[in-house]
Amino acid sequence: MVDMSKPLYRRVLLKLSGEALMGKESYGIDSDVIGEIAEEIREVSELGVQIAVVIGGGNIFRGVSGASRGMDRSTADYMGMLATVMNALALQQALEKLGTVTRVQSAIDMKEVAEPYIRRRAIRHLEKGRIVIFAAGTGLPFFTTDTTAALRAVEIGAELLMKATKVDGVYGTDPEKDRSAVKYERIGYTEVLQKDLKVMDATAISLARDQNMRIVVFNLRKRGNIKRVIMGKPVGTVVEGSGHVE
């Protein structure tokens, strides 16, 4: 029986989209929103949970959209990686304002602003109770930050990959367009791929499936949801194994 008074997970990776940092802004970072996210992360960290974070860069620049406008895809993706570094530094600042010790590790070498990504060093930081923010994706073009999140989660031995979104979980159709959309409480990796449900990109889901990395997709906009997921409460949609319960 799950003890709801204690965290269910010891080490997790939280995947945030860049768009999550915009709040009601049309571009960039909303300081109030990033402050609220930092406060939730700090609260969970103080429960003794080791937390790593991967942030996208879509609030500043998206490689795919840049490529669609005629830019070389590799160049566009590298620009997107740099955008994630900016977001990582902003989150680091928000966390450290709250007194939380934080490290940013970048897959692209930029030693003046971030540590290089070194798996063992990242794990050591986590063991010391520091929040580790992974920036610059995988350091390679053509890979999304979803794939980065799945990869880093596996590398650091996370017990859970938390995918923060703007909806309450995984639906059969887009709930913003279809009011009758059915939400899954639990769904298998293979079913996500077969139905092309856009939970994360196919590479990320395939990696999670191969390594049996549990994913919880939840609504970041609902205050306290990060802690609820960590405590094992029924929030969002669990992606693991096979089959589903609607």
CATH superfamily (homologous) name: Acetylglutamate kinase-like
The CATH topology assignment is Carbamate kinase
CATH architecture: 3-Layer(aba) Sandwich
Query: What percent of residues are in strands?
Result: 15-25%
Cα-to-Cα separation, first versus last residue: 22 Å
In one word, what is the shape? globular
Low-confidence stretches: none
Name of the level-1 CATH class: Alpha Beta
Q: Please write the string of helix (H) and strand (E) elements.
A: EHEHHEEHEHEEEEHHEHE
Characteristics of this structure?
36% helix; Carbamate kinase; 246 residues; single chain; nine-stranded mixed sheet; two-stranded antiparallel ribbon; alpha/beta
Task: Compile the SSE list and pairings.
Layout: E1 11-16, H1 31-45, E2 50-55, H2 63-68, H3 73-97, E3 102-106, E4 115-116, H4 119-127, E5 131-135, H5 145-155, E6 160-165, E7 170-171, E8 183-184, E9 186-187, H6 189-195, H7 202-210, E10 215-219, H8 225-230, E11 237-239
Parallel strand pairs: 1-2, 1-6, 2-5, 3-4, 3-5, 6-10, 9-11
Antiparallel strand pairs: 7-8, 10-11
Helix pairs in contact: 1-3, 5-7, 6-7
